[in-house]
């Protein structure tokens, strides 16, 4: 069994976890929730195994490099980090309901990588500019930030749903964490992601200087990374200096994640040094 087959199986495990989180919420049963947590742990372990196998297989092909160089690899890594961060949050807050809105994000990312006919899962040699340890640091830091923003997006959706019925929540919404906790969790996730995105942009600039002799070139992905950074910087400024909270912060968090998605997917199909399309 090769890495692609392992990761394809992991896709369905993530899907099963998302389904069980939903079942636990709707039917208000503990068993599906416990199974959902165990299944997510299994999916994360399988995801990590698949990426490590891919790394080892690249060396066996004589083109060894970290599995972070194309759309397929970045999506599977994205799913892994979402799963890890979510499990930490579930453990810390003792709430599986958050998984209803976060587990599907990990599933959708890896499902797109594994099931889309437009994305190749072949291990390919790196161009000279990508043969740098700065690449690994840059991609890892950025995707940890993206994963935190993805979960903040899910938490923001939860907040808006819960807040809309805050006075007398129905039986399903009553199982959500209270709006104050969701608001604080959203802020913490955005702060965490912002720090990693900032470090990712800095390491990317260092890598660009070593590869192309300039720190910044207004490449489409560089530009949109900066736009995304400013959206989240605005959110943090509004929270810390203006005292914004609740729905306004949730809306900004959702806007920021849409900027992340365009930075991640949209600009890959525009001409530029970061364009890898479906490769």
Can you tell me about this structure?
With 279 residues, this protein is an all-alpha fold. The chain has helices at residues 3-27, 30-60, 71-93, 99-115, 133-163, 179-212, 220-241, 247-264. It folds into 2 domains: 1-126; 127-279, no CATH class. The protein is 72% helix and 0% strand. Helix 5 (133-163) packs antiparallel against helix 6 (179-212). It is flat. The two termini are 22 Å apart.
The shape is: flat
- Compute the separation of the termini in Å: 22 Å
Separate helix tally: 8
State the secondary-structure class.
mainly alpha
Overall mean pLDDT: 89
| Count of individual beta strands | 0
- How many structural units, i.e. domains? 2
Order of helices and strands: HHHHHHHH
Which stretches of 5+ consecutive residues score pLDDT under 50? none
Radius of gyration: 19 Å
Residue share in β-strands: under 5%
Proportion of residues in helical segments: over 70%
Q: How would you characterize the largest beta sheet?
A: none
């Amino acid at each position: 069994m090769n890495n692609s087959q392992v990761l394809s199986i992991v896709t369905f495990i993530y899907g099963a976890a998302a389904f069980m989180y939903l079942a636990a919420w709707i039917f208000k049963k503990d068993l599906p929730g416990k199974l959902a947590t165990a299944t997510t742990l299994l999916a994360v372990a399988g995801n990590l195994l698949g990426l490590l196998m891919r790394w080892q297989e690249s060396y066996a092909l004589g083109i060894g490099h970290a599995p972070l160089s194309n759309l397929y690899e970045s999506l599977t890594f994205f799913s892994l980090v979402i799963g890890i961060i979510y499990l930490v949050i579930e453990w810390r807050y003792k709430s599986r309901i958050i998984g209803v809105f976060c587990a599907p994000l990990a599933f959708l990312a890896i499902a797109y990588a594994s099931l889309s006919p437009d994305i190749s899962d072949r291990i390919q040699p790196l161009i000279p500019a990508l043969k740098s340890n700065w690449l690994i640091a840059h991609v890892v830091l950025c995707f940890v930030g993206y994963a935190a923003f993805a979960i903040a997006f899910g938490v923001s959706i939860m907040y808006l749903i819960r807040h809309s019925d805050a006075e007398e929540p129905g039986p399903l919404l009553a199982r959500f964490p209270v709006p104050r906790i969701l608001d604080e969790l959203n802020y913490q996730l955005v702060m965490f992601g912002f720090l990693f995105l900032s470090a990712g942009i800095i390491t990317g600039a260092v890598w660009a200087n070593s590869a192309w002799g300039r720190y910044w070139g207004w490449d489409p992905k560089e530009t949109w990374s900066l736009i995304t950074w400013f959206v989240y910087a605005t959110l943090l400024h509004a929270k810390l200096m203006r005292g914004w909270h609740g729905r306004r912060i949730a809306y900004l968090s959702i806007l920021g994640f849409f900027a992340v998605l365009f930075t991640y997917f949209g600009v890959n199909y525009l001409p530029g040094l970061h364009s890898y399309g479906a490769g």
